[in-house]
Amino acid sequence: MKKKVWRRMLSIVVIVMLLGAATGSALVACVYVRSRVERAVESADCIIVLGARVWESGEPSDALQYRLDSAVEAFNAGLAPAVIVCGAQGANEPATEASVMKRVLVEMGVPAGCIYEENESYNTEQNLANAKAIMDEHGFESAIIVTSDYHVQRALWLAADAGIELAYGYPSASPRPFFTIWRLRAREAASWVVYWLRKIL
After folding, report:
1. What is the largest CA-CA distance in the chain?
2. What residues does each domain of the chain span?
3. CB contact at 8 A, 31 and 188
4. What are 145-169's pLDDT values in tens digits?
């Protein structure tokens, strides 16, 4: 009798684990599919560049450099006349992400007077809420949001939550190593779950 009970319990545990794995895989697949979507981008009042890690040397990480490359591409294409760079100083970072981003953008040819720093945010939600405050201060109504391709969809959700009613996603490249990009996509899938749970509960 006890063996039957244990077998049933084990079967239930295995089924739950398999369902969890299947659901997780489906979410990661959704993140991948959304990251590959071709997105229409129109001219806007500003470009918002979301923060990413800065190395102890003061140089941007690969993910952040890719975002800056895309921001410069959009700026040089005349898609927006201003750039808002977002990000506070994280652990082991020598300066705020925003200040490093501004320095690099200026080095890449973007006029310093066109760049607005947002130095107080520690996550995507704060990035966009604080960027919206800067937009309101300067009368900007629309934005192009530059971030890693796997991150664009959630950034657009959070932009809408922050009150940015007209926003376009502008995806940058992701780190190339296979396991790195799939780890990032898995983490983003988990963030989708957290986002929607917070909306529902």
Report:
1. 77
2. 46-200
3. yes
4. 999 988 898 899 999 999 998 999 9
